[in-house]
Amino acid sequence: MTTYSRRLFTVMIAATCVALSLALPSRALAADEVLTFFGWSDQHVKVDGTADHLLPAIDAMNSLPGTKFPEAIGGTVGKPAFVFGCGDITEWPTNAAKDAYNKLITGRLKFPAYDIVGNHDEGGKVPSETLTKWIISRHGALSYTFDKGGVHFVALFSKYDDSLDNPAQPITKEALDFLRKDLAKVPKATPVIVATHLCLDAITNKNDFVEALGGARVILVLGGHYHKAQAAEYHGIRFLQLPSPAPNGQREFTVVRVSSNRLIAIPYDYQKKQWDESRGKTLDVPLQGGAK
User: Fold this and answer.
1) How many Cα atoms occupy the beta-carbon half-sphere of 193 within 13 Å?
2) Residue 39: which pLDDT band, with cuts at 50, 70 and 90?
3) Per the domain annotation, does 181 fall within a domain?
4) What is the DSSP letter of 220?
5) Disulfide check for 230: which of 55, 151, 241, 258 has CB 3.0–4.6 Å away?
6) Residue 6 is assigned to a structural domain of this protein
7) pTM of the model
8) What is the C-alpha separation between 174 and 192, in angstroms, rounded?
9) 47 assigned to some structural domain
10) SS3 of residue 194 by DSSP
């Protein structure tokens, strides 16, 4: 092999390695790979920064790994890769509320945290950028993506329109455009989880939303807003509504476990210290490869 050929070969190998490394974040789950994460929503920290009602939930999250799942599921809860919040962190986005929440998820919570903005976090009819700027500082943008354990996550911000005077809202065109653009770049075999603040029952343009998912392998859509755990399906897409630890919510958070062939989601009642196996709140479904 000539010196030129050896150099060309080296360059080709290096280019291939770079291409493979760039592709690694978006990949299918390995056969023996399991991803666990916890989900909650609508924490509603008070304007004065009072957040005591979140402490039992956070302490339960910290201690839950190793707990046995119900017999029908089997196994034990793994260490979560992260905790995901579907918005309405605050009653209204004051600095005191933001700082109190930030202190809890970076100090008391033992796992990484991801959050999206809810309608309360925008400030309603008295808008404030306190929470939106905080989300951008943590995650780079209001809508953002990340990859964990072979799953691609889309944290989708959809601006709330208070002039509608209705908790049910459409997912905005800007949000749908972001979703389409991002999912077009994801390999078809990669499982995808999309998160919005609005739950299925609150999305008024459900068909447009499902259409925006395109041919991506979307295994789950997370939402909050209505303060209770609920699982449903719409046009072949599974939706999971995350519970709220707010005083008028449920004393639950949801445990999600994704493997190459199974998706499990079940709420844990941290007040009663038991699983909530109520019908309509849980998912235990097989997963298959390829695009949906």
Assistant:
1) 24
2) very high
3) yes
4) E
5) 241
6) no
7) 0.89
8) 20
9) yes
10) strand
Which amino acid is located at 212 in the chain? A
Mean pLDDT value across residues 10-19: 38
Q: How many domains does the chain have?
A: 1
What's phi and psi for 37, nearest 5 deg?
-145, 160
The CATH number given to whatever domain includes residue 192 is: 3.60.21.10
Domain extent at residue 135: 25-286
Predicted confidence at residue 33, as pLDDT, reads 78
Q: Is residue 92 part of a domain?
A: yes
Distance CA 37, CA 163 (A): 35
Distances (CA, A) of 250 to 197, 253, 267, 269, 271: 17, 8, 10, 8, 9
Report the pLDDT value the prediction gives residue 28, as an integer from 0 to 100.
Answer: 61
For residue 159, what are the contacts with CB-CB under 8 A and spacing of at least 6? 122, 172, 174, 175
Residues 6+ apart with CB under 8 A from 217: 188, 189, 190, 191, 192, 290, 291, 292
Helical spans, DSSP H, in the chain: 3-23, 55-63, 95-103, 119-122, 130-139, 173-183, 206-212
Confidence of residue 32 (pLDDT cuts 50, 70, 90): low
